[in-house]
Amino acid sequence: MTEQLDIEQDDQELFEHLRIVADKGQALLRLDKFLMNRVENTSRNRIQNAIDSGSVLVNEKVIKASYKVKPFDVITVVLPDPPRDTEVYPENIPLDIVYEDDDVLMVNKEAGMVVHPGFNNYTGTLVNALTYHLNQLPTLPGNTGRPGLVHRIDKDTSGLLVIAKSEWAMTFLAKQFFDHSITRKYVALVWGDLKEDGTVTGYIGRNMKDRRIMDVYDDPEKGKWSVTHYRILKRLGYVTLIECQLETGRTHQIRAHMKSIGHPLFNDESYGGHKILKGTTFSKYKQFVENCFSLLPRQALHAQHLGFVHPKSKEILQFDVPLPEDFRLALEKWENYSINSQE
């Protein structure tokens, strides 16, 4: 029986702010839990209030929070105010610019900065900063709200991003990303003692229960093909420092891949790395790991190297940036712990 509420809407016009179509593989899940998984930077209380006020519709009907979302359901959030426009407003936010010419800009993004505006992240993003620092950024069809961007890295991942300053540069760089000819190398600290270098492959798609995270599947219908090559940089006992080279660039690729082989990134909350997964039961060790978590309050992932062919000169450009302080300090603690535990 459909749990439809008898709530009358006011005569005022309602504007659609968010629209989600449930996947064909969507398991039955309460509406409030479904939205918690799909809507970033919100709380259960805010979602509950929106449902109770009749602002959340399922297939154009007002529904209770206990309604079970089914495959192909259309969930919309409607409000009396029109949604925020898609124009990106300039903000004077300092940027670490590694390289710049008339065609491209290389930025070393700090952890914690969102790359482009989106739901609940309309300000303080890298694109807001770029719009202030540059007179104009190119856009292409399907790239609304993300001018100049040909790729992205996660909010809590630090490191290199290349920005296109012209439509030609954007098209040229996008083709290199499509052809997988861009060289991208990341440094990551993962749980466990990796024995040898390797490659992780699989089809990356959304987790069926939590849409905020990705899973690695064997079924091509469940995701996009992905390849990550990794090599060991330093073994530190209960953790390993590795370099990951991306052959493809899927959402959360390294994070999902390393979890899939049993070595999630250190302090990666979304993928289970924020718990003590390896080591002793001694309280002193537990305190040591928690101190490392405090020094590095994010996933231990840094986009260290980026190489590409310049869109105008056709020269191969290679860029490297050092580990940021939070990553470096946590790594030093693990290095010291590894040395002392062997004595």
TrEMBL record:
Pfam families: PseudoU_synth_2 (PF00849), S4 (PF01479)
GO BP field: enzyme-directed rRNA pseudouridine synthesis
E.C. no: 5.4.99.-
EC class of the enzyme, as a word: isomerase
Alphabetized UniProt keyword annotations: Isomerase, RNA-binding
Active site: D154
Top-level lineage group: Bacteria
Classification via Gene3D superfamilies: Pseudouridine synthase, RNA-binding S4 domain
RNA-binding S4 domain boundaries: 29-94
Reactions this protein catalyses: a uridine in RNA = a pseudouridine in RNA
GO molecular function, one term: rRNA pseudouridine synthase activity
NCBIfam families (UniProt xref): rluA_subfam
Family under the similarity heading: Belongs to the pseudouridine synthase RluA family.
Biological role stated in the UniProt entry: Responsible for synthesis of pseudouridine from uracil.
PANTHER family linked to this entry: MITOCHONDRIAL RNA PSEUDOURIDINE SYNTHASE, RIBOSOMAL LARGE SUBUNIT PSEUDOURIDINE SYNTHASE D
Protein name as catalogued: Pseudouridine synthase
